[in-house]
Structure formats: structure tokens, C-alpha cells
Amino acid sequence: MKLRNKIFVGLGSFIALSIATLAVVVSYESRCPAPLPVEEGKPTMRAIVHRCYGTPSEALRLENIEKPVPGDGQLLIRVHATSVNPAEWYGATGQPRLVRLMNGIGAPKHPRLGFDMAGTVEAIGPNVTQFKG
Predict the structure, then answer these.
(1) Distances (CA, A) of 55 to 40, 44, 92, 93, 127
(2) What confidence tens digit (pLDDT) does each residue in 46-63 have?
(3) pLDDT for position 78
(4) Which of left, alpha, beta for 41 (phi over 0: left; psi -120 to 50: alpha)?
(5) Distance between CA 36 and CA 101 in Å, rounded?
(6) Taking the CB of residue 66, how many other CB atoms lie within 10 A of it?
(7) In what helix (H) or strand (E) does residue 21 lie, and over which residues does it extend?
């Protein structure tokens, strides 16, 4: 066998093994964990969270979570209305499975969904100049 053919066979085998490994990795699904406990005395808020992948009825839950504190250049907004678009659908379902490479393998990295919303500003972080809390 010529060296060129050995290189092509080796490279082809490596690529096939890599694709098979990637398929196994992105197909992994972890179970939905229980809601995280909130320390007593801390302010809370209600939020729709997704801690696992699946259909919206399986993966999305209404939970009481600890109210976040806005960081540098961030806002805390009380949401009054939101839209549901393909970005939320793909994020919640983890489909197509390659989306999981960005959002988290097995379970989402960030439990909150949402891109479009309307609401009122509740708090502002440092260095926010265009909004008032």
C-alpha cells in the first residue's frame, strides 16, 4: 500500500471516529434536577427556567429563584410580556443537537430563556447611563 493511501485511510478513520464521538456526546441528556433551594431572607422572584432539554411541557418550569443583582452595565427588568421565537424553541429542546455544543451538553448552561421582552426597569447596575431604576 502506498504511503498516500495509508495517510488517507488513517485520516478517514480519525474523522469517522471523531464524528461518532461527537454524535454520542451531543446525544447525552441529563435528568431534570430539582429546583435549587433559596436561602431564607433573600429576595426572590418567579421565573420560567429550563434545567434540562425536552419539550416545553417537560423542560420548562415556573420556579421561585433568588433575585439577581445587576452587574456592571446590566439591568434587572420586571418582564410583563415576552415572545416565543425559534431561538427559545431550539434552546429548550436542544434540537438540532449541534446547538448543545453552544448551550451546554446534557443540560443547559444558563437556565433562563428569552431574547425579546417588554417590561419595567427595576434596578440598574453600575455604569448604566441610558436607563433609570
Answers:
(1) 32, 26, 7, 6, 39
(2) 988 888 888 888 888 999
(3) 92
(4) left
(5) 24
(6) 14
(7) helix 3-26
- CA distances from residue 97 to 25, 31, 54 in whole angstroms, order as listed: 10, 16, 12
Whole-Å CA distances, 130 to 55, 67, 75, 81, 116? 38, 22, 11, 22, 19
Phi and psi at 52, nearest 5°, equal: -155, 170
Q: Count helices and strands (H / E) in the chain.
A: 4, 4
CB 76 within 8 A of CB 112: no
DSSP E strands, the chain: 44-50, 60-66, 75-82, 117-124
Tell me the pTM: 0.69
Strand partners for 112: 49
